[in-house]
Amino acid sequence: MVWVQYHRWVKTLDVGDRVAEYQPSLLSNQDLKAAEVSWAYNRPAQQAALSADELTAWKQRIHEFQQTVKGEAGATQGSLFGDSVPSPVEAIDPFTLPQRNAEFWREQFTDAGNAALYFVLDHEADLLLYVGETVKANQRWKGTHDCKRYILNYVSAHRAADLPVQVNIGFWPYAPEDRKARQSLESELIRKWRSPFNKENWRKWATPFIGQSDT
C-alpha cells in the first residue's frame, strides 16, 4: 500500500538526507525589488508596513496553533495499534519533509515530475505557510502562481522589519494521480493546519501578504 511505502520512506530518511537537499532560499535582487514594490503597492494607503513586533505577533499566533496540531497528531499516531494505517492527513508531517529552495522551479529538470502535495514553510519560524497539490511536481511553478507573490511579499516584509526568514518547500511524492482525490487531501490538510497563505484561511489570520490578484 502507498501509505506503508510512505512510512518506510520516512524511516529511512535521516537528518543528513534533509541537510543534503537543503539550500538557503536566496532571492535575486530583481525578485527582492519586485517584492518591495508589490508589498508597497498592495497594502492600503492608510496602513503602514508591519512593524517587527506586529509581524512577530502575527507569526506567533499561527505558530501556537500549528504546534497544537502537531501535538494532537502525535497523540493520534501514538494511539494506533496492530497493523492499523493512519490516513495520509494524519501521517503527513510537512515539517519533516526534505527541504528544497523555494525557487526550485528555476532549475532544469529532465522530467515533469510526479503527482505530489507540497508545503511552503518558513523554517526560521517553524511555520507552515501554504499547502498545494500538483500532478507534475517539477513544473507546478514554472508559470504564474499567486503563492510566488505571497512569498515575495512575506520575505520583503521581513527585510523591512530586519527579521530573519527562511522560506523553503517540501514535497510529499505519494499523492494520488486522480485530481479529485488529490484535491480532497489538499483541502483536508489546509483545514487541519490552517496555513495562512491559502485563501480558505485568509480571514482567520487576516493574512497581509496576499496583495491583489494578477488576473
Question: Secondary-structure blueprint of this entry?
Answer:
Layout: H1 2-12, H2 15-21, H3 29-42, H4 52-78, H5 88-91, E1 100-101, E2 116-122, E3 127-134, H6 146-161, E4 167-172, H7 179-193, H8 202-205
Antiparallel strand pairs: 1-4, 2-3, 2-4
List keywords for this structure.
alpha+beta; globular; 215 residues; 8 helices; 4 strands
Please summarize what this structure is.
This is GIY-YIG nuclease family protein. The protein has 215 residues and is of the alpha+beta class.
Overall pLDDT metric: 75
β-strand percent reads 5-15%
Order of helices and strands: HHHHHEEEHEHH
The tally of strands reads 4
Measured as a percent range, the helix fraction is 40-55%
Distance between the termini: 41 Å
> In this structure, how is the largest beta sheet organized?
4 strands, antiparallel
Query: How many separate domains make up the residues?
Result: 1
General shape = globular
* Cα Rg: 18 Å
Strand order of the largest sheet: 1-4-2-3
- Helices, by number, come to 8
Task: Extract low-pLDDT stretches.
Answer: 1-28, 30-47, 108-112
Class by SSE composition: alpha+beta
